[in-house]
Amino acid sequence: MLRAVVERHLEKVALAAKSAPGFDVDQARSDDKRALWTYALLDAQGAPPPSSARWIVSA
């Protein structure tokens, strides 16, 4: 379940970021890794996944 939440979140963030002026691929990769590690640590601690409404970025 957490994996699906992370994937949906990252897809929406990537779509929004790629359409922004000055998109930086390296920064986007770094941000994705940071988010993935954050979710992995929360999952390891048994935290529920965040509400999808909090993490959706409007495209």
Automatic annotation (TrEMBL):
<protein>
    <submittedName>
        <fullName>Uncharacterized protein</fullName>
    </submittedName>
</protein>
